[in-house]
Amino acid sequence: MKSFGKGLLALLAVAAILVAAPAARAAEPIVIAQLAGLTGPLEAYAKQAVNGFQMGIEYATGGTNQVLGRPIKIIVKDTQLKPDRGKQLLTEAYKDDGAVLAVGPVSSAVALACLPVAKEFKRILIVEPAVADSITGSAWNRYIFRTGRNSSQDAVSNAMAIAKPGVCIATLAQDYAFGRDGVSAYKAAAEKAGAKVVHEEYVPIKTTDFTAPAQRIIQAMKGLKCQEKYLFVIWAGGNNPLGKLHAMKLDSKYGIQLASGGNILDALKLYKPLVGMRGATYYYYDIPKNKINDWLKAEHQKRYGGPPDFFTCGGMSAAIAVVEALKKANSTDTEKLIKVMEGMHFMTPKGEMVFRPEDHQALQSMYAFKMTADPKLAWGVPELTKELTYKDMDIPIRNKR
User: Fold this and answer.
1) What is the reported pLDDT for 9?
2) Sign of dihedral through CA atoms 180, 182, 185, 188?
3) pLDDT at 149 over 50
4) Is residue 396 reached through a cis peptide bond, with omega within 30 degrees of 0 on the bond before it?
5) Who contacts 144 (Cβ-Cβ below 8 Å, separation ≥6)?
6) Angstrom distance (rounded) from CA 368 to CA 160
7) Kindly report the CA angle at 309 between 307 and 311, in degrees rounded to 5?
8) Which of 5, 11, 44 is nearest to 240 (CA)?
9) At CB < 8 A and 24+ separation, what contacts does 28-31 make?
10) What residue spans define the domains of the chain?
11) CA dihedral defined by 124, 126, 127, 129, rounded to 10 degrees?
12) Per-residue pLDDT for 98 more than 90?
């Protein structure tokens, strides 16, 4: 009898372990890695993306930071803007940290180095906010999604802001994937709208003296019979040349107007004197009118003492996409996630986005603007002239699927 009792107790103990095991597994954190270039010239972008992602997880989970009954654990890894380091950190995240997916990075060069890692480990990488077209184009694979806008979205929206027959445009950009992809897409969109791109200038990322490229642009546009002349600038990070170009009085001396896309608030301080400059932007906190953006603005003001910025919005959008995908798939399995994410519509601080099935690029609104100045604000204000929804823009598919 004692033997029977001991056996029964042993069986009950084993049963208890078997019952507890799935519950323990269910409570394991869902690990998400975020690659961010927290060291280097894009540090401001990275910090915004990290803050935005954390706020987005909070918002999308109703403040619980849990999904599928499991806590979400975010591991932030500093790529230092080095492609080899980014590749190594993503490998570490998938292999050692058990990340079910990853988000980031900031730099297009780092992102391009990371794409094969996602394919090797068969895990999703949601690119946010790296912009180069090739990420969802020639270098793309099926494990890559992007919530950030791409160069073509920047280009098409900025072209729609100024391009038309009779307009001549020169471009100035940094000499790496972001700049060259951006100009290539911009040129195609501008010329499709009837404008002529007559000159392209590419300079090193750390350039601070723009006298020589400006002189080449002036010479290239000299004597052209155009109704309007523009210099369109594509720039990321520090040393933004717009202020210096404005000081050269290109408009009053040579009839060349400046044009550029939107930027983070610190960069918009340089835009304040550029009243009347036209372009298109990915985000400015007062433009979108929806409840998610209202929440983001209010909470960001409480926590950080100021309005949310470009990449805060981007980080939040990526986080919402992650939580929505996990809910819809009811799983962390990569194949199930891909199945629900292709064509998935989700709401963000910018309004609706949708992952295009063909290349997993998030189609989204962009905002044409005219630059204004508000004496109460330290930065220039991009005043909305037209919201360009994803239905208004013809964004090319550039992958080889």
Assistant:
1) 53
2) negative
3) yes
4) no
5) 115, 118, 124, 125, 127, 135, 136, 360
6) 8
7) 150
8) 44
9) 28/70, 29/70, 29/71, 29/72, 29/73, 30/67, 30/68, 30/70, 30/71, 30/72, 30/73, 30/100, 30/326, 30/332, 31/73, 31/75, 31/93, 31/97, 31/98, 31/99, 31/100
10) 30-149+288-364, 152-281+367-388
11) -160
12) yes
Amino acid sitting at position 203: V
Within 96-247, where are the H helices?
108-121, 151-162, 177-192, 211-221, 242-247
Give the global pTM.
Answer: 0.86
Q: What is the pLDDT of residue 25?
A: 52
Find the length of the chain: 401
322 in Cβ contact with 32 (< 8 Å): yes
What CATH number does the domain located at 30-149+288-364 have? Answer: 3.40.50.2300
3 state SS for 125-144: EEECCCCCHHHHCCCCCCCE
What are the Cα distances from residue 366, in Å, to 84, 97, 313, 383? Answer: 32, 36, 13, 13
* Residue range 123-141, pLDDT digits in tens: 999 999 999 899 999 999 9
Same fold, 30-149+288-364 and 152-281+367-388: yes
Instruction: Assess whether the previous peptide bond of 129 is cis (omega < 30° from 0).
Output: yes
Handedness of CA 380, 383, 385, 391 (dihedral sign): positive
**H/E element, 259:** strand 256-260
Do residues 372 and 275 make contact, with C-beta atoms less than 8 angstroms apart?
yes
Q: List the strands of the sheet with 345-348, edge to edge.
A: 345-348, 351-355, 362-363
Q: Which pair of structure tokens corresponds to residue 206?
A: 């750390």
CB 258 within 8 A of CB 207: no
- Please state which of the ranges 180-189, 191-200, 361-370 shows the lowest mean pLDDT: 180-189
Of 41, 35, 170, nearest in space to 101 by CA: 35
Q: How far apart are CA 144 and CA 125, in angstroms?
A: 5
SS3 47: helix
The H-or-E segment that residue 250 falls in is helix 250-254
Domain 152-281+367-388 - what CATH class? alpha beta
